[in-house]
Design brief:
Helix content: 40-55%
CATH architecture of the largest domain: 3-Layer(aba) Sandwich
CATH topology of the largest domain: D-Maltodextrin-Binding Protein, domain 2
Order of helices and strands: HHEHHEHEHEEEEHEHEHEEEHHHHEHH
Number of strands: 13
Strand content: 15-25%
Oligomer: single chain
Distance between the termini: 37 Å
Number of domains: 2
Structural class: alpha/beta
CATH superfamily of the largest domain: Periplasmic binding protein-like II
Length: 316
């Protein structure tokens, strides 16, 4: 795998005029105020790493400092405490924060769920006796966090199959621990996301795609900030949004290179990256992308009221 510096040097050498522009942008970025960004080293939440290593932040004249978190919940907590300026998190997490008075807004789309390339599945043990969704009643399913996207997907999936989600037990669990728990029988199932789906391919059976219950295509997570930071830094926010959408367009068609970068930050091996379902990134942000999550969050009482997409999307 080439280092970022070598890759960038080769590219700039091949395109001298772009190289000059990038060099100028880098110099500008080094003197601009620092934007503290929270990211997570899994494919769907990793665009910021790609943007930094591929020079998209430099090109936009941004001086970005990335802090790594274990999940999107960590970024929402950090932003509330003023530890970061911009983070990435799921739609229902941001909706719940807004309901409780935290002034978060989305400024750019992040990862999408696309049914044709599912990045999350419900997994069971290969010798499991579960045959139908009703068999989960009274049993325990592992999710990454209560009322997050994995929990919401299971609630929608069960509801659509005529099952009260309240009759299924849910437990929070870190993704690396889920598949072993399924194999041991500690839990009856787990909602796994990539790369853990691929890691566990030989050990578990994919039972269903619960996120399909929400919609065949919708926004999983987006880049958010506080209204206070946005009002004080709107020009920088515009540059950040432009850089993220340039990153999205690049990453959506350059899986080999983005896979190298994913390995760098997540330590995923070559075989896993080659076989896992890769994330699809939003190249815009609109209400239709948020509505499936917001609709279902209200329907299963994951939010106290139906939050509108207009409340969550900022005009940058």
């Amino acid at each position: 795998m080439q280092s970022t510096d070598l890759s960038r040097s080769a590219f700039l050498g091949a395109v001298p005029l772009l190289g000059l522009a990038a060099a100028t942008a880098t110099a500008s970025a080094q003197t601009s105020p620092v934007i503290r960004v929270g990211a997570v080293p899994v494919d769907g939440f990793a665009e910021a790493y790609y943007a930094r290593d591929m020079g998209f932040f430099d090109k936009a004249g941004l001086n970005v400092e990335i802090t790594t978190f274990n999940n999107g919940s960590g970024t929402t907590t950090a932003a509330a405490g003023g530890a970061i300026d911009i983070g990435i998190s799921t739609v229902n997490s941001i909706a719940n924060a807004v309901i409780h008075g935290i002034p978060y807004v989305y400024i750019a789309g992040g990862s999408m769920y696309v049914a044709s390339a599912p990045s999350a599945v419900l997994a069971i043990a290969k010798d499991s006796t579960i045959k139908t969704p009703a068999d989960f009643v009274g049993k325990t399913v592992a999710i990454s966090a209560f009322k997050d996207g994995t929990h919401l997907a299971m609630a929608a999936y069960l509801t659509k199959n005529g099952i009260d989600p309240g009759k299924v037990n849910f437990i929070e669990m870190q993704y690396p621990l889920m598949a072993p728990a399924v194999v041991r029988g500690t839990v009856a199932g787990a909602v796994l996301v990539e790369p853990f789906v691929t890691f566990a391919a030989n050990d578990v059976h994919v039972f269903a795609k619960p996120l399909d219950a929400l919609s065949p295509e919708f926004l999983l997570a987006g880049w958010f900030t506080t209204t206070t930071w946005l009002d004080a830094n709107r020009p920088a926010a515009r540059k950040f949004v432009a850089a993220m959408y340039e990153t999205a367009r690049w990453a959506n068609v350059n899986h080999a290179k983005s896979g190298e970068l994913l390995q760098k930050y997540s330590k995923v091996d070559d075989a896993t990256v080659a076989h896992m379902a890769r994330s699809v990134y939003a190249e815009r942000l609109d209400a239709a992308q948020l509505d499936p999550t917001l609709d279902w969050s209200a329907r299963v009482n994951f939010t106290e009221r139906r939050v509108t997409a207009k409340e969550l999307i900022a005009r940058v």
